[in-house]
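Q: For a teaching session next week I want to show students how multiple molecules come together into a single three-dimensional assembly. I've collected the sequence lines for a complex. Could you give me the predicted structure tokens for the whole thing so I can convert them for display?
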Amino acid sequence: MNSTLFDPSLPGVRQLQAWTREQRLLRIELLNGSSHEGVLLWQDPEFLAVVRSDASEPILITRRALTLIRPLG
Amino acid sequence: MNSTLFDPSLPGVRQLQAWTREQRLLRIELLNGSSHEGVLLWQDPEFLAVVRSDASEPILITRRALTLIRPLG
Amino acid sequence: MNSTLFDPSLPGVRQLQAWTREQRLLRIELLNGSSHEGVLLWQDPEFLAVVRSDASEPILITRRALTLIRPLG
Amino acid sequence: MNSTLFDPSLPGVRQLQAWTREQRLLRIELLNGSSHEGVLLWQDPEFLAVVRSDASEPILITRRALTLIRPLG
Amino acid sequence: MNSTLFDPSLPGVRQLQAWTREQRLLRIELLNGSSHEGVLLWQDPEFLAVVRSDASEPILITRRALTLIRPLG
Amino acid sequence: MNSTLFDPSLPGVRQLQAWTREQRLLRIELLNGSSHEGVLLWQDPEFLAVVRSDASEPILITRRALTLIRPLG
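A: Of course. Below is the structure for the complete assembly, covering every listed component.
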């Protein structure tokens, strides 16, 4: 992703910020067919940090590998 | 996508804007082989926000993962 | 694709323009293994608009997902 | 590909130019698992134009989808 | 990845630096479905150098092929 | 890859240069699941030129398709 895209005024970045604040459970689907559920801790231009309900530490998911983010519950 | 591509005068961006205004049902196919039907709520350089008929909230689909968009009905 | 690549003097862009003018039937193969036949209506840096013989409206195919374009007939 | 990569002094671009001049038969393997044999007609930053032995017209192969080019015979 | 992303103040780059200092065992998942366990030796904008427990020399993993990094143990 | 990444002072580019000088046998794994063994002849921002033990001429492997490089023997 071009870093010029990581503009906090873009609706996608703002939607992810809102879901982070709300601690919204998300389902994140990736190019390799895997999917992951968790709460977003932070985003930067390369990664999303996602905390799963059974874990204390975040995993890093590559923004480049995302296909779809779906809010749950 | 290079943000210079997100130029509202480009025919692709304008076609997506027209389908958003018309609330046109679209079938969106992705690199991982999945496909999704819904109405476009907004687009930005990284994501398309898509509302499916059985959902009140949009999902975010990564523009980078798109292969094909087909208008339906 | 970097928008600097969308230079009408490049041989690839010119070949696609020639096939558009000739309404040449093309077979377009994508990274996800799907392939699509149709006539090119327009190209921009992000999409090819393709009209299939059984459809009145174009589909949008992402340039980034292309692997191969083969002229038919 | 960044267009700054399409520098005729780069060894990769020069190797492809040499194979074009020699009309060398090449095997070209793509990200989607397909492979194609033919002679290179031209290259630009987005495409390779490849003429197969059983065809008069070139196909366009996306440089972005390449994995491997192997000289044959 | 755009080199402007490789900014040591970004939270993702800092998290990887912290795991490198701690010699934290990581599970690294890639776009082709493979996964690899090891300790991070260094990162640069193109590669992660990963030392597996049964090896003395690092392997290079392409940052572009990452989908997910998960701390273990 | 952004050409600004092809900086000879980056540790990844330097590691590949060292393996080239040492004629080190490498196993190179690609996004499409294929893997290739050989010695590196040169690198540029788009390609690695790899000579396999049973061949006199190099093959070109796209840097963009790399997932992993592993030194052997």
